[in-house]
Design goal:
126 residues; mainly alpha; 3-stranded mixed beta sheet; 4 helices; 3 strands
């Protein structure tokens, strides 16, 4: 049997054993910090949302011969700035996703959930 009943649900016993051996729970709090950083990048007043509206104005001018937007910034500078911001966001999201992928291994085989043994809270050395 590879499923085990715990106070937080049935989990895969082998994945739990591996987790108990080498998982640092501080990584969860690191993910919270990463989320805060993501929020800061995306929700910043006058941040990416405003920048995309500005980029739209610039491209409307370049592609559709619309009225030129005000301001001195070059279109490529704005694109470069946005690209850098979202590259950083992508890195943070990948880090969080890797953590969640690792924890996803706790998911038990549905066929083995019914016969899951009880978890005693101690490490098993079988």
């Amino acid at each position: 049997m590879t499923a085990i009943k715990t106070a937080v649900g049935i989990v895969d016993k082998e994945a739990l054993n591996k987790l108990q051996e080498d998982f640092d729970t501080r990584r969860i709090m690191d993910a919270v910090s990463d989320l805060d950083e993501l929020r800061g990048e995306i929700e910043e007043p006058g941040g990416p949302r405003t920048d995309f509206f500005r980029l739209h104005e610039m491209l409307m001018y370049l592609c559709d011969e619309d009225a030129p937007p005000g301001g001195e910034e070059a279109v490529w500078e704005l694109v470069e700035e946005l690209s850098h911001k979202f590259s950083n966001c992508r890195d943070l999201v990948e880090k969080i996703t890797d953590l969640l992928d690792e924890l996803q291994k706790l998911c038990p085989d549905p066929d083995e959930e019914e016969g899951a043994e009880d978890f005693d809270g101690a490490d098993d050395d079988e």
